[in-house]
Design a protein that fits this description.
With 208 residues, the chain is α+β, with helices and mostly antiparallel strands. The chain folds into two domains: 56 residues; 132 residues, Beta-Lactamase. It has five helices and five strands; from the N terminus they run ααββαβαββα. A hairpin with a 6-residue loop joins strand 4 and strand 5. Helix 1 packs antiparallel against helix 2 and helix 1 packs parallel to helix 5.
Length: 208
């Protein structure tokens, strides 16, 4: 008569200490997860507050620029207000306002390199065709040919730039804002402020 081999193990209930250790470990993991979530929420809240503050600052600058443009009595003063706003109010390292038209018709406007009048069919504008055919501002690093046309002797110092159409389809021209910082303007940034700025400048220039 054959006999079955007895198993060489015995079922044992986990000890009270083991259950206790497992429970403590589980609780610690849960607490760690909650802490990480709390840290993420705090970081997100901080970022939202910083963005809100930055938007408030920009809104205040736009408001101030609006008041100054309304007070401008002629094209010369309006362009001077814009140049000063770009340089001091918005911290641009370089800025150029390009207006499409006959340069001779604007020969009485003298605000240095900031103001430039170019015939819309000028071959020098060919590198900007894609931007001018687009529907909004462009941000990031620009081509050498674009940089040389806009910033001339300071072109090599420009790390990034924003191109802002003035008027629907850039009918009036465009604003170029250059920064020595390569990361100041980049394709992933919000363009809402730049769009508002372009609309504001278009409204101011249409008066003349």
């Amino acid at each position: 008569m054959s006999t079955q081999a007895k198993p060489d193990y015995v079922d044992e209930e986990p000890s009270e200490q083991a259950v206790h250790d497992y429970t403590i470990s589980l609780v610690e993991r849960q607490v760690s997860v909650l802490r990480q979530k709390d840290l993420r929420r705090k970081r997100q809240l901080k970022e939202l507050i910083e963005v809100a503050h930055a938007n408030d600052v920009l809104a205040a600058k736009i408001h101030e620029l609006t008041l100054q443009l309304m007070a401008g009595g002629d094209l010369q003063k309006t362009v001077m207000v814009l140049e000063e706003a770009m340089r001091s109010g918005f911290g641009a390292d370089q800025a150029v306002l390009v207006i499409f038209g006959d340069p001779e018709a604007f020969s009485d406007i003298d605000v240095g390199r900031f103001f430039r009048v170019v015939d819309r069919k000028d071959p020098a504008l060919k590198p900007f065709e894609t931007f001018l055919d687009g529907s909004g501002p462009r941000c990031g690093q620009i081509r050498d040919s674009q940089c040389a046309f806009l910033f001339r002797g300071d072109a090599e110092e420009i790390g990034s730039a924003a191109l802002v159409p003035i008027g629907a389809g850039a009918a009036i021209g465009f604003l170029a804002v250059g920064s020595n910082d390569r990361d100041r303007f980049h394709p992933g940034m919000s363009i809402d402020f730049l769009t508002r700025l372009g609309d504001l400048i278009a409204g101011a220039l249409k008066r003349y």
